[in-house]
Write a structure and sequence with these properties.
By secondary structure, the protein is α+β, with helices and mostly antiparallel strands. It contains six helices and three strands, in the order H-E-H-H-E-H-H-E-H. Helix 1 packs across helix 3, helix 2 packs across helix 4 and helix 4 packs antiparallel against helix 5.
Length: 176
Amino acid sequence: MVTPDSLGERGADLTKYRALKPGAFIEHSEMSIELKSDDASIPPNHIFDRWGKTLLEASEAYGKSLGVADQTKDHIEATGFVEVVEKRFKWPIGRWGQGRKLRAIGRLNKSHWEASMEGWCIALLTRALKWTVPQVKDFLREMEEALKDDNIHAYHEVIIVYGRKPESVSENESEV
């Protein structure tokens, strides 16, 4: 899971801005931790719903919000990049996607989630929310079981944002 670096998202973008030559491009990708479905197959208070809310709460309490995916474009624009473009992709988790490509992405993405969830949350939940390791393990077991349910059509968004450093200050009105 991609997280903001130690400078914070705005500071990281400022560092990247200063490092690039005029006219150079930046590309940034983020994965949302919130799981969604377009067909209401994730019922209210389901573990997938609680997963996103819990990790957002913990990350904000820890001072490193995992909710940066929806803010990436704004951060890059505020830093001074121009011609900023945001592209959003729905990555299925599991085999339910329509078409060969989405089913393949879904299978790989499910494996990614299964292999990565503990690393994404154990330190965060035990440090920020003061959960015990057994509590985290129970939370993870519930997630693992839910990932096996092919009737749930869960996905997460992957957001790609790219933009160009202006050739001159006048192209962007103000230098950072």
